[in-house]
TrEMBL record:
This is Solute carrier family 40 member. PANTHER family: SOLUTE CARRIER FAMILY 40 MEMBER (PTHR11660), SOLUTE CARRIER FAMILY 40 MEMBER 3, CHLOROPLASTIC (PTHR11660:SF53). InterPro entries: Ferroportin-1, MFS_trans_sf. One of its GO terms (molecular function) is iron ion transmembrane transporter activity. It comes from Kingdonia uniflora.
Length: 482
């Protein structure tokens, strides 16, 4: 299999690769730099779009219903279709599948732009009338396709390709590569939000959407070119199909080649994804990751923003709170690799979870004391949440490496997309609870529920850590813990 012997080592900038089967060292990791650049181009457009579409749809009518409806079906699509998309990614060669999904995502975004621009030219009487429009039904469909494509692309990059270049037996190299990928994602989130904010302050929403569409069109060939270049420079390691071997030849199994019943095959794929997820050797670490998604209140999200607005907090402080949380996430990517190097992968994950749970416990105690009616305790409450993001993002990076180490490469996309599907279900449930307990007076109840999920994740992971199985010891034999 071409490129199967590729290995990497860490330098000041990132990861440097060389092929071991008699090939010369390729220098300073140009293939990895190309992969990072592809990630930057794709993530910047995606993060810009994640800000652009809710803002543009919200301007159609002074109601949250259209945005909530689109978000609801996007989560539902990820929950239902995630395992199927992961199975497809695990059966097809990596680079063609990645390029195809990149094109599908860009096409879905462009169709969404056209539909929203059309919606701004049509007068609406109520939020419910928006939901009944034919263009809105199409927008829901292409929005779900866009989210599923983005899910598969993210899993392929973070759970598959990075592992192929770094190797699970090189924990420090893999930790630094994961940190760089997370750093790129967070910086693109900040840049995308800032860019669209600048555009929206100077132009109307339709013009901003047209400019965003131009960026999408321009970024797609850049992503495809950089992906091809990274694969070419790494001796084709990214393009290895992960299908079974037969008689020394690669046999690619296409799931729908002779399919007569797409629904049956889709159902089987989803069941298979859930079964593989359930029996993965690092399930406790994955469940801890999923439990953190139940925390939808003590984070810089929509519910926290609504709560702070109801408290009459200055909008600049609310914006600063969100920005500081994002920058804290960037800082966490710098320290996660150091934690892995000093304490090992498993202890580093436990430290991140314990740090987050401890600070959020203090934050909830401050809230329950009833002192948030004063300015200083409220700022202290927000400061604790900001600081807790260090622990959250540290585990996000380290937890990804634990899953990369424990999941077989042949099942990386399937299990990864199924995990994201389960996480979407967690968010779905918590938003349902928030809809029922929608009064601001119930914020304390929601905060306690969110804290309970973080504490539960910490307990589950630490219990797995102190009672290691034989399989756990085998997978993490290089870890100082063992």
């Amino acid at each position: 299999m071409k490129g199967a012997g590729t290995w990497v080592r860490v330098r000041k900038w990132g990861v440097v690769s060389a092929a071991s089967c008699g090939r010369q060292n390729r220098g300073f990791g140009v293939e990895v730099i190309a992969l990072y650049a592809s990630c930057v181009a794709g993530n910047l457009v995606e993060q810009l779009w994640n800000i652009a579409w809710p803002s543009a749809v919200a301007l159609l009518h002074p109601s949250l219903l259209p945005v909530a409806f689109l978000g609801f079906f996007a989560k539902l699509a990820i929950f239902v279709g995630g395992p199927l998309v992961g199975k497809l990614m695990d059966h097809f060669p990596r680079v063609p599948a990645y390029n195809c999904l990149s094109s599908v995502q860009a096409a879905a975004q462009l169709v969404s732009v056209a539909l929203i621009i059309h919606a701004h030219s049509v007068p609406v009487n109520s939020a419910s009338s928006v939901l009944m429009q034919p263009w809105f039904a199409v927008l829901v469909l292409v929005g779900a396709i866009e989210r599923l494509s983005g899910l598969a692309l993210g899993v392929a990059m973070e759970r598959d390709w990075v592992v192929q270049l770094a190797g699970t037996n090189r924990p420090i190299a893999l930790a630094q590569a994961n940190a760089i990928i997370s750093r790129i994602d967070l910086l693109c989130e900040i840049a995308g939000a800032s860019l669209f904010g600048i555009l929206l302050s100077r132009y109307d929403s339709v013009t901003c959407l047209k400019l965003a569409a131009g960026l999408m069109i321009g970024a797609l060939p850049v992503v495809l070119l950089l992906t091809w270049l990274s694969n070419k420079l790494s001796a084709g390691v990214l393009d290895r199909p992960k299908s079974p071997q037969c008689c020394g030849k690669t046999v690619i199994e296409y799931p729908f080649q002779n399919a007569g019943n797409f629904v049956q095959i889709s159902t089987d794929a989803i069941k298979h994804g859930w079964m593989e997820y359930k029996h993965q050797p690092v399930l406790p670490a994955s469940l801890a990751y999923v439990l953190l998604y139940f925390n939808v209140v003590l984070t810089p999200g929509g519910l926290m923003t609504a709560f702070l607005t109801q408290r009459g907090l200055n909008p600049s402080i609310i914006g600063g709170f969100s920005g500081l949380c994002a920058f804290m996430g960037v800082a966490a990517t710098f320290i996660s690799a150091s934690l892995v190097k000093r304490f090992g992968i498993l202890k580093a994950g436990a430290l991140g979870l314990i740090f987050q749970a401890s600070l959020l416990t203090i934050a909830v105690a401050v809230y329950c004391s009833g002192s948030l009616s004063r300015h200083t305790p409220l700022l202290f409450f927000l400061f604790l949440i900001v600081l807790s993001r260090l622990g959250h993002m540290s585990y996000d990076v380290v937890g990804a490496q634990i899953l990369q180490t424990g999941i077989p490469p042949s099942k990386a996309n399937l299990i990864g997309t199924t995990e994201v599907s389960v996480a979407s279900l967690a968010e779905f449930v918590m938003f349902g609870v928030a809809i029922i307990a929608n009064d601001v007076s119930h914020f304390g109840f929601l905060a306690v529920l969110s804290l309970s999920s973080v504490v539960g994740a910490t307990w589950l992971f630490c219990r797995w850590l102190v009672n290691p199985t034989d399989e756990q010891k085998r997978l993490f034999s290089f870890d100082p813990q063992f």
